[in-house]
Specification:
By secondary structure, this protein is an alpha/beta fold. It has 9 helices and 15 strands. A 6-stranded parallel sheet has the order 12-11-10-13-14-15, with helices on both faces. A 5-stranded parallel sheet has the order 6-2-1-8-7. It has a two-stranded antiparallel ribbon with strand order 3-4. A hairpin with a 2-residue loop joins β3 and β4. α1 crosses α9, α2 runs antiparallel to α3 and α8 crosses α9. The longest helix has 22 residues. The chain is globular and about 65 Å long. It starts with 6 loop residues before the first strand and ends with a strand.
């Protein structure tokens, strides 16, 4: 039986990455229908459920649970590798095209219809060129242009959790009372990723000075994967009250939902906190982000929305 979809999104990585991939799919379809593939490139899941599927999606977004073989996974990985890396050398471009032809043929046979794998160029914004038949988006697409597309914007901001735990409800009630600034400090895996890098202390110092001038809340909630390390990185002025949110009993989707209730945002170089700020229920609140996004790799093209505040990590 032939599949009826036209644009499919191959989910990969954690929740922040998955949301960018869905946004790119909706952008490509001009807000129309897409299918998200939850079993082909093995995105991160919690308790057996892909993290993005803890949210209710509009009817235009449906899940496809079709699985893939080891060979198919390998071909998709090679396509993405050649897409992310520069193809300046003729031999690299030639190999990339051969891999692309083989991958398209493999998936055309799988879906019994002409199928084109569209791998992102780099990890940020790129033109998504569709062909007749099925199109499988295979990339990271970490760029504001996709979610800020008018045909996509409201669909994304209107997503809600399928279920809210009692723990999440209590945290949300507390956030509504305290009106906090949300700060994200990501350490853990970033300590071992020299290309990405951990955001230095001076970034958080500058961000809090910026927010002081704007007269925002003096309550700070710090979301982190290493609660015991917070005070080594973030040392706000004494008038700020700090709440550290480490292991909070929430799954990633619930944590992201909680992050939507901030009065201002100081995000890390993480797609997770990027989406917490983008999906905020507080319209027009300050959103601060670091530049460069990665310490030792090119920053994703288009990662900064026009009205967000950048703090340059290379300046004293």
């Amino acid at each position: 039986m032939k599949s009826k979809w036209n644009i499919g999104v191959l989910l990969k990585g954690g929740l922040g990455n998955q949301l960018f991939q869905i946004a790119a799919g909706l952008h490509s379809s001009n807000g129309g229908s897409i299918e998200i593939f939850s079993n082909i490139t093995l995105p991160r899941n919690t308790a057996g459920v892909v993290d993005a599927l803890y949210f209710k999606w509009p009817g235009e977004v449906t899940e496809n649970r079709r699985k893939s073989s080891k060979l198919e996974k390998k071909l998709l990985a090679l396509n993405l590798k050649y897409g992310i890396r520069e193809k300046s050398l003729p031999e690299k471009l030639f190999v990339s095209r051969i891999v692309g032809v083989i991958t398209d043929l493999m998936f055309s046979l799988k879906f019994r219809a002409p199928t084109h794998v569209v791998s992102g160029e780099g990890v940020g914004f790129c033109e998504i060129n569709l062909k007749t038949g099925h199109n499988l988006l295979n990339g990271y697409f970490q760029a504001h242009q996709y979610p800020f597309d008018p045909a996509v914007y409201n669909r994304l901001r209107e997503i809600r959790l399928v279920n809210e735990s009692s723990t999440l409800i209590r945290w949300i009630e507390k956030a509504r009372l305290e009106n906090p600034i949300f700060i994200h400090l990501r350490l853990g895996d970033y300590k071992n990723e020299s290309g990405i890098g951990v955001i230095p202390t001076k970034y958080y110092e500058k961000a809090l000075r910026e927010l002081e001038l704007k007269g925002v809340s003096r309550n700070i909630w710090i979301f982190t994967d290493e609660a015991e390390s917070v005070h080594g990185y973030i040392q706000p002025p004494s008038e700020f009250k700090i709440t550290v949110i480490g292991e909070n009993g929430l799954n990633p989707a619930e944590t992201l939902e909680l992050m939507r209730h901030g009065s201002a945002y100081v995000i890390a170089n993480s797609t997770f906190s990027w989406w917490g700020a983008f999906l905020s229920y507080r319209s027009g609140c300050p959103k601060i982000m670091p530049t460069p996004w990665f310490q030792n790799m090119p920053s994703p093209v288009g990662i900064k929305p026009p009205d967000w505040i950048e703090i340059d990590l290379l300046k004293d």
